[in-house]
Amino acid sequence: MTHWTLAARAAKMNPSVIREILKVTEKPGIISLAGGLPSPKTFPVEEFARACEVVLGHDGAAALQYAASEGYAPLREAVAAHLPWDVDPAQVLITTGSQQGLDLVAKVLIDAGSRVLVETPTYLGALQAFTPMEPQVESVASDDEGVRIDELAAQVGSGAGKARFLYVLPNFQNPTGRTMSEARRAALVDQAARLGLPLIEDNPYGDLWFDQPPPAPLAARNPEGCIYLGSFSKVLAPGLRLGYVVAPQAVYPKLLQAKQAADLHTPGFNQRLVAEVLKGGFLERHVPTIRALYKQQRDAMLRALEREMPGLGVHWNSPQGGMFLWLRLPEGLNATTLLPLAVERNVAFVPGAAFYAGQGDERTLRLSFVTSTAAQIDAGIAALAATIRAAA
Ligand SMILES: Cc1ncc(COP(=O)(O)O)c(C=O)c1O
Fold first, then answer.
1. In this structure, are residues 200 and 105 in contact, taking their beta carbons and an 8 Å threshold?
2. What is the residue with the minimal CA distance to atom 14 of ligand 1?
3. What is the pLDDT of residues 190-220, one digit of tens each?
4. Exposed site from 32, 192, 345, 375, fewest CB < 10 Å?
5. Residue 306 C-alpha to ligand 1 middle, in angstroms?
């Protein structure tokens, strides 16, 4: 009988808690406030149908051929032009979703035992991407303004044990929906530069602001000190698997080599489709419609919470963009044990503990306000309140 000996890193891989929860939420009739799925109403299907005809009609053979690992040049130029600082297209690497960007960063910057810093809580998919490289992941405390920097100098350390990077999500963070303030951004970039600490800035939600754009990205303030990750998943469609990395010259060639080893290149057909769709300022017309829809849904969730939760000792925030809201249960309740009870009442959420590198806050949970309709949000929040009331 064949005996498969797994690599030590394979033993450290775990199924995504969220993907497991999403399986439960496929139960018919359930209102899922759990998934991080963009609203399918926002997918520009007709524009892609038109782009398919153009790409296959004019450029079909090239679109179906192997292509450069860096990405399709017109798309790299479009990405550089879209970003709010002076970006050379040569520093743009097109990736198969920004999730691949996280994987490449992990491969290029982490040795077994390397210390890496993440904010608290953080994106679960980043923890999953980093884990196979066997780092020591350390949490940096955060507050309503974002990651805290008062202890940063001590946490970065020095010499061989110095942290390789700090991974941050400044805009409408997944999972909390919170946004890093202007003052905190300025102070973080300043501190990081003084400490020689590289920053990994993950920004898939930055364009989805409701009332005003968020402050400038960290990378715009110190491009040499940041790797910036962006994505087309939330502004066009996640099924395209199209993201990008903007990296300084000190690391770009290695990210590119890691990309070559991973998948040679991101599908050239998809890249050409997106380049075609973006022509003529499509995003400037399309993204405001996503903002308007998500803002309406955020408002529906806030109204439902205000109506259903009073007296229960529940606290929540009011995200200024993105897809998620963060809620904290009253003392004595645990979101992980509450979930099956909520599912019995046909509503699902993601327990917040999944998003912590270390010991999670068991009282927290993440609610998505974008995939369900306003009526479903109303019913879902009412069911959640009933679950909390019964468990309290
Ligand atoms: C913070 C964050 N980073 C990265 C990703 C991965 O996005 P994609 O690979 O679709 O670009 C997600 C997806 O939800 C996310 O929330």
1. yes
2. 36
3. 999 999 999 999 999 999 999 999 999 999 9
4. 375
5. 30
